[in-house]
UniProtKB/TrEMBL annotation:
Residues 465-491 are annotated as: Disordered. It comes from Paenibacillus thiaminolyticus (Bacillus thiaminolyticus). The chain crosses the membrane at residues 281-303, 348-367, 373-392, 404-428. It comes from the Bacteria. Belongs to the GerABKA family. Pfam families: GerA (PF03323). One of its GO terms (cellular component) is membrane. Coiled coil: none annotated. InterPro entries: Spore_Ger, UPF0353/GerABKA_families. Keywords: Membrane, Transmembrane, Transmembrane helix. One of its GO terms (biological process) is spore germination. This is Spore germination protein.
Length: 491
């Protein structure tokens, strides 16, 4: 009897042949015969390395051998979830997702057991978003664990999860987490439409998903926030935003967000508000230093040297006396060298990478000055720029600033300080035009929303921030009652 294409056959040998043909005799596809004392032989199929062998042996094979009857297939297994299907394509999909499948002779149904057990990484400290006083738990590559980490922070029945499947060749599960009574349902519909509209082989990580669904793909600025911290994700959910958990990725995607969101850190809410405000201002100052300092050096030295004090300009002239290059070329060489050392430090093993970044920077800078290739002032400018870029807490925003530094240097070389002003105006105009899942990216500055400015350049006391940010469009603005500076609620 020949097997019907795409259907589970009554003859187990036909099912085995179908699977061997589908997977081209894959060496890690295991076929295990199940001999029962009172009945015919059954066949259990799974991929080695994708299943938990202890679960298979203790909760599937042993109960089957002890309890499977020749007259009635009662499946006395103790595994958590059991499904059945007659579709061989569904069997194929389940096997590739770590499930085990049981074929019984004379049955046109295949039984699917949830025995997933691939290697998993234990929960460790976040590698990028480190915290001094915050949690030391970071996301891992398993979506179920990441969801449970967020649930621990928000044990509320209104926390909902909407799951979507993406990928034609390697289906991946995306889980959208949100508070049903807080988050804007129109944003959920927009986010769902963008994800369901994807036609792609697979989505491997969160970064790919962000690029595929963001509002403006040509902007250097990230329009969705990625984080590897469960406490940060939970905080954004409480503010009315959506969190997308991508299976097999150690970070989640948050939206809609604003430009200011990329300068906020979880430690801002773990320390005194005055200290947090000072650090927040320091970050924005570092943003301007990292973006404009090299271009301002070029503009002032080339075009607008008259605004520099006499003593300083004499010092700069003495420093540049032996330098044969134009200030633009001098700055370009040093900035490219800095980026190369930074990239080398990331790609090399951690202990070696730190050594390369520190020692390499000192040696190259000192040698370049002694050789007369660059000036002492240029080394100070590049070092200040590098330190300022490290202060920005978000990696994606820091990368955008590192890229934009070079166009600003070119504009300063061509048009001087006037070019820097025009470039800054274009940059501000671009930021004001951006949106994140349809919400204003420049909020609360563009459009102006005074109620939301308590958590922008300054971090006001927590008791004073009684409403949620209006940018994400929350259904409920109130997030706390009459808390007072004296502690507790209003009396």
């Amino acid at each position: 009897m020949s097997a019907q294409q795409g259907k589970v056959n009554e003859q187990m040998s036909a099912n085995v042949q179908q699977l061997q043909s589908i997977f081209s005799q894959a060496p890690d596809l295991i076929f295990r015969s199940v001999d029962t004392p009172n009945g015919p032989e059954a066949m259990l199929v799974y991929f080695d390395g994708l299943v938990d062998l202890n679960s298979i042996n203790n909760h599937v094979l042993y109960p089957l051998i002890e309890g499977l009857s020749s007259t009635e297939y009662s499946l006395p297994v103790t595994v958590g979830n059991v499904e059945s299907t007659s579709d061989m394509s569904q069997v194929e999909k389940m096997l590739l997702n770590g499930k085990s499948v049981l074929f019984l002779p004379g049955s046109t149904e295949a039984y699917i057991f949830d025995t997933c057990g691939w290697p998993q990484r234990s929960i460790t400290d976040p590698s990028i978003e480190t915290s001094v006083k915050g949690s030391h738990q970071g996301f891992v590559e398993t979506a179920t664990q990441n969801i449970s980490l967020i649930r621990r922070y928000i044990p509320n029945r209104e926390l909902k999860i909407k799951q979507l499947k993406v990928g034609a060749r390697g289906e991946n599960t995306l889980s959208i987490m949100y508070l049903r009574d807080v988050a804007d349902p129109e944003v959920l519909q927009e986010l769902t439409n963008r994800i369901e509209g994807l036609d792609i082989d697979n989505v491997i990580n969160t970064g790919e998903l962000s690029e595929l669904i963001e509002d403006d793909a040509y902007s250097p600025f990230p329009q969705l926030l990625m984080t590897e911290r469960p406490d940060s994700a939970a905080s954004h959910i409480l503010q009315g935003r959506y969190v997308v958990v991508v299976d097999r990725s150690p970070s989640v995607l948050i939206g809609p967000v604003t430009f200011v969101s990329f300068f906020q850190s979880v430690d801002d809410y773990s320390i005194r508000w005055i200290n947090a405000s000072f650090i927040r201002l320091l970050r924005f100052f570092a943003f301007f230093i990292a973006l404009f300092l090299p271009s301002m050096y070029i503009a002032f030295i080339t075009f607008n040297f008259e605004v520099i004090p006499i003593q300083l300009i004499l010092s700069v002239a003495e420093s540049r006396e032996r330098v044969p290059f134009h200030p633009f070329l001098e700055a370009f060489i040093m900035e490219v060298t800095l980026e190369m050392m930074r990239e080398a430090g990331i790609r090399l093993p951690a202990p070696i990478g730190q050594t390369v970044g520190l020692v390499g920077g000192i040696i190259i800078g000192q040698t370049a000055v002694q050789a007369g290739i660059v000036s002492n002032i240029m080394v100070i400018v590049v070092a200040s720029t590098a330190i300022a870029s490290f202060i920005i807490p978000n990696f994606d925003m820091g990368t955008a600033i590192r890229f934009l530094r070079f166009p600003m240097m070119l504009i300063a070389f061509l048009f001087g300080f006037v070019g820097i002003v025009c470039g800054a105006m274009l940059l501000i105009s671009h930021l004001c035009s951006l949106t994140s899942l349809g919400a204003a990216y420049g909020s609360p500055l563009a459009p102006v929303r005074f109620a939301d400015m308590k958590d922008t350049f300054l971090r006001f006391p927590l008791w004073s921030m009684k409403t949620r940010p209006t940018g994400p469009g929350p259904q409920q603005l109130k997030r706390q009652g009459g808390n007072t500076p004296e502690g507790g609620g209003s009396k």
